[in-house]
Specification:
By secondary structure, the protein is mainly alpha-helical. Helices cover 79% and strands 0% of the residues. Helix 3 runs parallel beside helix 9, helix 12 packs antiparallel against helix 13 (286-296) and helix 14 packs antiparallel against helix 15.
Length: 342
């Protein structure tokens, strides 16, 4: 009897140990949701307070944006793509990623016809087309799927950056010129494209390419770089979201809230449904499919505000869309996705 009792005792301890370890895993997974507060909400709030109290100049904020894009996100792209599994799905992502912009853009054009003012119409379409995929989507994908999810988000974000230069900027310029009845500027389109796309701001593409090359040639990333990557994600989130908080202007954006409620339905319902069903016809990797779902629900990007400001469209509408959709995403949409997908 003693041996049997001893075996039962050992079995009980083993089950208790397994349960404890599973609890740890669940706790660790749930704790990642805190990143929404520490890496997304907190830097937004700090950036807004810095502007309201005039503690930081706009020049320093612009410098922080450059550091984020050219240095931090280049390093993150390099490290994440170094361990990204190579597959046919990976080759198809740049093609499929175009739908993240073209599909909401087409719906946005149809909905924007009700605006007679072309400056308002252009800002509305830009807000519909551009989502916060690279920054906000990248952090949220990392929370659920670590480096693999982050790398997928950067790849889809690169597709959006391409269309930003090829489609959104020319569209914004067109609406500005038509509203003011100015002649369409001819000039060198090749030179204009080169200035907008081939710049230092596109250097993360080089990081992606270098990471993929090292992985394809069989060079494994040193395991010591994994903690460094995770720390860099948090730094990248702060350097990206703090300037966004600095640019928020609730007073000027309040007037356009009633005009952008349908953009919320577009971003959080129509586009996710389209991406959910269409992506499953092409891809099979569950991590990639769930990452697509996360990215399809991301709010209006700050690039929509940038495009509106560059071409003197109705910037307040883009700011209003950015603020409302970002607040809804951080407080409702992503926490819901987190518990559904984890």
């Amino acid at each position: 009897m003693a041996p049997i009792h001893s075996k039962r005792l050992r079995l009980s301890w083993s089950l208790l140990f397994i349960t404890f370890r599973e609890g740890d895993i669940l706790d660790e997974s749930s704790l990642r949701l805190i990143y929404v507060l520490t890496d997304l909400v907190a830097p937004l709030a700090v950036g807004y307070l810095l502007k309201e109290r005039h503690l930081v100049s706009e020049k320093k904020i612009n410098l922080l944006i450059k550091v984020n894009v050219r240095l931090i996100y280049t390093a993150l792209s390099f490290l994440s793509f170094w361990v990204l599994p190579l597959s046919w799905d990976l080759a198809l992502i740049p093609i499929y990623g175009l739908f993240f912009v073209l599909f909401p853009g087409a719906l946005g054009m149809a909905l924007a016809r009700r605006f007679k003012n072309l400056l308002v119409r252009g800002a509305y379409i830009a807000s519909a087309m551009l989502a916060n995929i690279g920054t906000l989507g990248g952090v949220c994908a990392f929370i659920l799927y670590n480096e693999q999810g982050f790398a997928y988000a950067q790849l889809v974000g690169t597709c959006q950056n391409t269309l930003l230069a090829l489609l959104v900027f020319p569209m914004a310029q067109y609406f500005y010129l038509k509203q003011h009845r100015l002649p369409l500027r001819q000039g060198s389109r090749l030179r204009s494209f080169a200035r907008m796309f081939f710049s230092w701001n596109q250097i993360p593409l080089l990081g992606m390419a270098c990471g993929l090359l090292l992985h394809s040639f069989g060079y494994e990333r040193p395991p010591q770089l994994a903690p460094f990557f995770q720390s860099l994600v948090h730094i990248g989130a702060w350097t990206a979201m703090l300037p966004v908080g600095f640019l928020m202007d609730f007073g000027r954006a309040r007037h356009y809230l009633k005009y952008i409620m349908d953009l919320c339905a577009l971003r959080f319902l129509v586009v996710p449904v389209f991406i959910y069903f269409s992506s499953r016809l092409v891809f099979s990797d569950p991590v990639l499919l769930n990452t697509f779902l996360i990215l399809s629900t991301t709010p209006t990007a700050i690039n929509a505000v940038l495009a509106s400001k560059l071409y003197q469209l109705r910037t307040d509408l883009a700011v209003s869309s950015f603020i409302l959709t970002t607040v809804l995403y951080l407080t409702i949409v992503f926490p819901l996705l987190f518990f559904l997908l984890k």
